[in-house]
Input
Amino acid sequence: MRRISVRTGKPYEVHIEAGILQRVGKLLATQGLHGKIALISDDRVWSLHGTSVSKAMTEAGFQLVTYAFPNGEESKNMDTVSRILEFLAENSMTRSDLIVALGGGVVGDIAGFCAAIYLRGIRFVQLPTTLLAAIDSSVGGKTGVDLSSGKNMAGAFWQPELVLCDPDVLNTLPDEIFNEGVAEAIKYGVIADRELFELLAAGRLQNELEQVIERCVQIKSQLVSEDEFDCGNRQLLNFGHTIGHAVEKCSNFRLRHGQAVAIGMVMMAQIAWQKGWSAENCEAPIRKVLSRFQLPLESPYDFRSLSTAMLADKKRKGGEITLVIPEHIGKAVLKRIPVEELPGLA
Output
């Protein structure tokens, strides 16, 4: 088993091991996590993994209630949150009980947000079932939902008690959804680890999947431990995301998150080189590795439309917005610019 410690105000571990979900109940018990479990998932993930995970929990002696909402970003809203909160209350969940998120990023974000606000906070555990969730959204304590004005505009920082990542479940993913996670892995390579980037560019991901997951989580863990509440260098994790979130919004979420981030990384690398902010032109190598995983490279929307959406982004602070600039493959920096300069960047 691979273990990574996340040293936030409430420290916890990420465990990575093939087959780990088959003994999830015993692992929760050995971690001292007792009480009733509310297992939150979506209907697609539930059809694949719900029965086996539920069995592992009940066989370990846990009392279990389950809730599954419709799969997709369109469920990531306050209506879904309200329904889950009512479900928790109807089932008399208390602060000694536990929410478990079984699913990808949408499930983890929603379940984590409900855990943060139900009874002013109860414990929760992440069981990521997509590559994107395993290497990114399940770690770091960011939870939330979308508002009509933008992605993840309502949320809370609420760290899990534990993250259990089972690489075996990734075998059930369609290529499109798996590759969405690869976009995030590429992001980690660009901002912090040239060797990781080159591994992905060389097509060695499938042979070294557990190592890649571990390395991505290590990078995120370090940034989160240094900056739990996203005021400084943790914002490096947003490379490609400011533009990417705008692409998602303009597409009415028809483009998936990882696809939009891929587009955002290409555009940001291009802008950074044109403006003289980068020491190396990162656009070509980023395009090449994204193409290997059939990820989109071009925005269907003009930059002026995107910049309007970007001005509603969480990363805007007053009259400035923070951009993540790749200096070269393996290192990125933060750059704050006045919002009035944003439309003219491209």
Observations:
- The mean pLDDT is 96.
